[in-house]
Design goal:
InterPro entries (chains A, B, C, D, E, F): HD/PDEase_dom (IPR003607), HD_domain (IPR006674), HDIG_dom (IPR006675), NA-bd_OB_tRNA (IPR004365), YhaM_exoribonuc/phosphodiest (IPR050798)
CATH topology of the largest domain in chain A: Hypothetical protein af1432
Radius of gyration of chain A: 22 Å
Strand content of chain A: 15-25%
Shape of chain A: globular
CATH class of the largest domain in chain A: Mainly Alpha
Distance between the termini of chain A: 26 Å
Helix content of chain A: 25-40%
Pfam family, one (chains A, B, C, D, E, F): HD
GO molecular function (chains A, B, C, D, E, F): exonuclease activity; nucleic acid binding
Protein name (chains A, B, C, D, E, F): 3'-5' exonuclease
Oligomer: homohexamer
Strand order of the largest sheet of chain A: 1-2-3-5-4
Organism (chains A, B, C, D, E, F): Bombilactobacillus bombi
Largest sheet of chain A: 5 strands, mixed, barrel
Structural class of chain A: alpha+beta
Amino acid sequence: MLKKLADLQAGNDFEFPVLLKQVDVRTARNSKKFLAIVFADDTAELPGKFWDASAQDIKDFVAGKVVLLTGKCELYNGSLQIKIITMKIAEANTYSLNQFIKHAPLSQKQMQEQINELIFQITQPKWNRIVRFLFKKYQQKFFEYPAAKSNHHDYVGGLAYHTLSIANLAQKVCQQYPQVDQSLLLAGTLLHDLGKTIELSGPLNTQYTLEGNLLGHIVIMDGEIVAACQQINIDSNDEEVVLLRHMIIAHHGLNEYGSPKRPQLLEAEILHALDELDATITMITKAEKRVAPGEFTERIFGLDNRRFFVPNALASNNDDIKN
Amino acid sequence: MLKKLADLQAGNDFEFPVLLKQVDVRTARNSKKFLAIVFADDTAELPGKFWDASAQDIKDFVAGKVVLLTGKCELYNGSLQIKIITMKIAEANTYSLNQFIKHAPLSQKQMQEQINELIFQITQPKWNRIVRFLFKKYQQKFFEYPAAKSNHHDYVGGLAYHTLSIANLAQKVCQQYPQVDQSLLLAGTLLHDLGKTIELSGPLNTQYTLEGNLLGHIVIMDGEIVAACQQINIDSNDEEVVLLRHMIIAHHGLNEYGSPKRPQLLEAEILHALDELDATITMITKAEKRVAPGEFTERIFGLDNRRFFVPNALASNNDDIKN
Amino acid sequence: MLKKLADLQAGNDFEFPVLLKQVDVRTARNSKKFLAIVFADDTAELPGKFWDASAQDIKDFVAGKVVLLTGKCELYNGSLQIKIITMKIAEANTYSLNQFIKHAPLSQKQMQEQINELIFQITQPKWNRIVRFLFKKYQQKFFEYPAAKSNHHDYVGGLAYHTLSIANLAQKVCQQYPQVDQSLLLAGTLLHDLGKTIELSGPLNTQYTLEGNLLGHIVIMDGEIVAACQQINIDSNDEEVVLLRHMIIAHHGLNEYGSPKRPQLLEAEILHALDELDATITMITKAEKRVAPGEFTERIFGLDNRRFFVPNALASNNDDIKN
Amino acid sequence: MLKKLADLQAGNDFEFPVLLKQVDVRTARNSKKFLAIVFADDTAELPGKFWDASAQDIKDFVAGKVVLLTGKCELYNGSLQIKIITMKIAEANTYSLNQFIKHAPLSQKQMQEQINELIFQITQPKWNRIVRFLFKKYQQKFFEYPAAKSNHHDYVGGLAYHTLSIANLAQKVCQQYPQVDQSLLLAGTLLHDLGKTIELSGPLNTQYTLEGNLLGHIVIMDGEIVAACQQINIDSNDEEVVLLRHMIIAHHGLNEYGSPKRPQLLEAEILHALDELDATITMITKAEKRVAPGEFTERIFGLDNRRFFVPNALASNNDDIKN
Amino acid sequence: MLKKLADLQAGNDFEFPVLLKQVDVRTARNSKKFLAIVFADDTAELPGKFWDASAQDIKDFVAGKVVLLTGKCELYNGSLQIKIITMKIAEANTYSLNQFIKHAPLSQKQMQEQINELIFQITQPKWNRIVRFLFKKYQQKFFEYPAAKSNHHDYVGGLAYHTLSIANLAQKVCQQYPQVDQSLLLAGTLLHDLGKTIELSGPLNTQYTLEGNLLGHIVIMDGEIVAACQQINIDSNDEEVVLLRHMIIAHHGLNEYGSPKRPQLLEAEILHALDELDATITMITKAEKRVAPGEFTERIFGLDNRRFFVPNALASNNDDIKN
Amino acid sequence: MLKKLADLQAGNDFEFPVLLKQVDVRTARNSKKFLAIVFADDTAELPGKFWDASAQDIKDFVAGKVVLLTGKCELYNGSLQIKIITMKIAEANTYSLNQFIKHAPLSQKQMQEQINELIFQITQPKWNRIVRFLFKKYQQKFFEYPAAKSNHHDYVGGLAYHTLSIANLAQKVCQQYPQVDQSLLLAGTLLHDLGKTIELSGPLNTQYTLEGNLLGHIVIMDGEIVAACQQINIDSNDEEVVLLRHMIIAHHGLNEYGSPKRPQLLEAEILHALDELDATITMITKAEKRVAPGEFTERIFGLDNRRFFVPNALASNNDDIKN
């Protein structure tokens, strides 16, 4: 029996609950309203149109609601879509929102423990206090937000998972190159994308906020460090604070990518490289999972529109990979 | 009688007081120390070497001191330089430092009045309070600092003078284009380079500070606005504050020039254009004053190494231009 | 009662005169001809299709005609369009073409007076004679042509209005920076885009001419200056003429934008900056008028595809702005 | 016996006539004047300094004079230079200037005949008349000027020789690709660099003129075509003339290299390619003649600072190559 | 009577044999399969759709088959397309595939003779042996493959024809510039694109192979030279072989275009220039044949999206040109 | 007692054995020969000049010899140099060359063992055999050569040490991201720079060879893989071999850096990133060791001329770092 969106093929009839991930109200040629919807669960996303929407429909069917959907899966222009037969709002408490959305491979609790362990390794007192203060302030969102609107780690907990991946790599680099300051590298790693909790609107229907558009997460987080210093009585122009602020503002590596200064610290250069490495591996892996061995992926926007080849020779390696 | 550096020609003997603008201690081939000095007064700058410097000389002759200098002006490799005959520290109180350094064409008092008048025209209350708070905090340095290490407005009061020039242009643009918000444009103009009071070390022997190198005046000033908001109880994420912060961070226009975001407000685009226009006119004028009509200037680094032609036809226009 | 295109909403029936601004003859899938029309008046432009066009229809309904149109306004793919019910050519003399096309905010007479005043301020005799000669030759077109095919000042009189806006800014710059030669700057300003009267086909249905495509308005105007000099007996290699020609050929600022030489005169650099400033303000304002406060504009092609934000905070400033 | 500059090696004493190709008057550290001279004959160029120059010396020893020079050849910083022992102006009429300067491999008479033959092949009447008119006007300079200040074809007659080389290639291309219009390609070829007779000062001590700096040879020649048309009663906006003007203004291929329009005619694209090909071959050959087989040349500025390898395998091919 | 695709106009009914050049199996909205076909003969290509394709149809109608097609020519969205009425596979042996595909203007025999003549002119023994070995190995494909997937010389024999065109130009350049080594230039010319026989899948339905995508024809041919040397006992690190390998790897001219080294030999620079020149002329000519005199071509992707103008003045030149 | 070059300060007299690392024969202004020498031991390098060199001196004092040097250390233009008093060739067998040159932090034996262990982990049979074959062929040079002429790992064994550093990082990445194929990543890592044993001349007096200049180590190693396949009977166009060849040719990441193809395999992208990361960390560390805490390094050419800051705060971390 078909229970999830990922099970559907062209021609299938089905009935099961799904999430309204995105809902746009539009006007048809006949001047009536319709809803352009993205349905989602934790396995896939599919589009569909709800025609002749009444004022009540528009009020009821908003993004974030779970609906019990009866429909048919169809192929159109080479892509699957949903033909809606009936659709009604699920009773409150029947389903948890969490069942319908994609999550990080680790639980929030697991990630929380790893973060705590990492903060413990920041032995420089000022950096430790600043990181602790800001994680306390934004911790709720940190474990829920995605790391990006799309591209990579675009799921609940993606921000935390991406941060942890970089921190793991960072620890290995510190082992191999003892000249690297682990406190600084970890403090920078933990804070580098935390501003995304202000830059983005949240894990569902993710949009850029006004601060996100006009300031960006780099400037936002720098401001948050300044504000934190005022509250815990650290001078934000101390050399140690300036070093940490530089870690944040330089982490995009190039001015063209939005860093007002390019890295001028060994640790800042490494943070930039590891950030890019984790994002790159994740983007390629995500794209490769959509195609079969022996094929090229779609062009990946975030990697200069390159396509990547999934070798037949390595087919067995791609089983059971998490995101 | 020769009284100023600008009077000297190759072969002249002279005796008058000058400022030690820059002093580097170096070791000669014979392993003795010598001082590589830049002498300056308000008319010109000339280099000279003080050989066989004793430990006492090194202690006495530091940048910022005024000396009574007896010397001869010589031509070397096509440039004038000073051959030092005798040199002694001027009595304290004999000369004011101000006599020996280049100043803005307006007095500090004149500039202060104009700034006050401009702040008065910022009618939006939050912007007015933020600007007022920050000018009170940095006003001393604002009227003393240069606008740049070299290139343009590199003299005492240059920062204030450059800011006023842009503000004058801004007012004219507001008259011609009523859709421009004058409060926002003036608030952004007044604050846009104020971070240079932290980025640079001061009006003499100007160097980049650590904050200047690792953060830059754009990020510094954004942090100062955040800190100011905390102190005067304004939420730094209010739309009005976000707009003002965007004015600062976007004023270099391009990511490549250090702006983490490109202008996304009409007023931000205008501030960038006027900043560039005033700097450009000033750089060209400074270079043109060094050559005769009918000649091309030296290549101007800040203008893509272009050379500019001083027409014979316009020779009379270049008399008596200030800065 | 509905009288203008800007009044129409989806579902409205209407009958009023409009201009055929653009008419393309095409063949439908059934092999019959149809007309793809852009209707216009001085308030808006809307597209519509005239099906099954006879040979006579094709001959009658050409761009530039005014028709009495009976139709219905419909929404299609999110845009309004006209469903034509009946359409007939308006009697000659019933309507003036001028009623149906967008004009500069100033009348031709007002602009003519301002231009005369500006020419009067060009006190250098050769420049004055050349400018006077060329304005006499092209004055008719100068006051009718747009300043560009689209982007900015794309209306009747746009070329003159754009030229005057720059000239106004230029006068203010000359007041603030006395080292600028006002004669040269104004002469260059008045001529800089005059070549567009040859580069473009005219104010309606604007296209690039062959000269426009293969030579461009920069080279065209340089040739016109050479030809003018021959007719009024000035040597086109005189320094003064070379300066003026340089003003024209350098006004795009960068080789990449079609200037064969980058600016090498202070006045040429300023002309380039003011040209860009006026075009930029105009493009942003035009885009902002299409969206509500709190929204971002569409991407603006001429500004590197940037979007601009219309602040809620400044909403009251955008009332009653011209062009 | 040593008779030419190319014969000299470090340590040689010599006495023979040479040309003063370049003479700069400078002031030595001891405040006396000296002359920095470039001596030349048709085999080589070598620098030397004439110390303690009197006012009479400065007046006598100017660029363009032939002197009887007694001197010694020395090695300094890895380069040969002349130590002047005595030097006196050669009697007028003793030597012809031509003996001392480098010339094109063909005589002016040979080149004149080839040019005439090429003009004869321009069968389109307007292009033929324009080319004929302009060659009559500038023919004297055309056969004397170099094709560039340095880089390539920087000798007497270089402009004509470069033009003929391209024209030869052009004829071969027309044979192989009959779709190419030979009249247009040859007319464009003959005129494309003719503006250098105004852009440059002449074959000796070559400098850019004011027109050269502010307009450039591309714009200069376009203006000359316009002026020519006026004098021979051709409308400079005829399609044929516009095509020819486009050939000139597009021949640098890229906006970045000073063409206000990129090629939009097959013939314009070919002219650009052949111009580049001839210049490239000539630059590489010139550089390769300065090094031995098995070595790399110096970096060639005009070819993106690339170095080229002279293979041992091909050593025999490089004998007796002209220019 | 209509016999070829190029004869068809909108509304024509026809029946004649054509080639299935490309066939894609897709699923329609009604979940049935259909075939998206490109029909071709040696005069033109036209698209059409075969609806409701059975499993047998899918098996029968594959690319490379000749079918007897009854259909109607229709205009859709401004382009001609085929409405299929009946379609059946042509009897084997009824038609030769060659009748339906575009060929080089020369026969394979003619091209073979010219290639033999060229190899004869490679007088350096190692280069001669390597070229002979590789042409023997790949000669079959060399005379059948296109020179590119699309863009230029995209027909049977295009690779050989493009190679010969360059070789002809190369011989002319060697005549004009005797310093060029003809053996090296011809050996490099003959081999430069030979790797395309491995990079591409063949003359019909041309695709990139895995080697083509991951290595490219430049690296492929370098490897082939190394392998050839092993088989005919030449050391692949001999200077002569290194020169030849450099000719191949540098022929794209710029790193950005896939050459791992830029040209460092005179002959390598020339090969790059002539390769580009022949491709450019061919692309422009191909585009110009699709439009009438007085019009601009479509934008040409391979030439930076430029459009080219077909002058009225030159209309008579474009008759009877071979591709 | 002073025993090593690193001990010397300006003014010191000394006598100890050193290596002649580089010797250039030049001619002085007095026409006599002299030797420009770089002296080296395993602690430092210093320049000196040997004047009036006889033919015998030139024959004796060649690069690679150890000499017993009596001299004085002097400061000149801010840099230390050696004034040679006496210098004589050390007896053969008195000193081992190894004493005087910088080595990798690991012994050759240690590195050999690690390499063997890594090859053991390449479980794919074809890759294992190819790697084994090529390491057997080039192993001697692999453990002696530097990884670059200068920049980073420019010492004996640098190539092997750099390769091992990347391989260590690669193993960690494989642990963290199980979707990465470790065999392919390690095989590519081990071979990626092996071509430098042909591109460079050796560990002392390192120069580019002709193959290095005209082909580069990327193309060289691709050719070596092809040749190896022929010798061990593997088809070089097998998918597995194509994958490995792609790892080599794509490892510079960008066409601009000499890769004829950009990475199209996950493993190729990772190899590129880790190669860059190790080189970057090494370059920064090398530069930081030359300056004191609180200072910026010199500009690093290989990192876009950026300078890096050595924080006071982290001073204790930089003790005892290897290479």
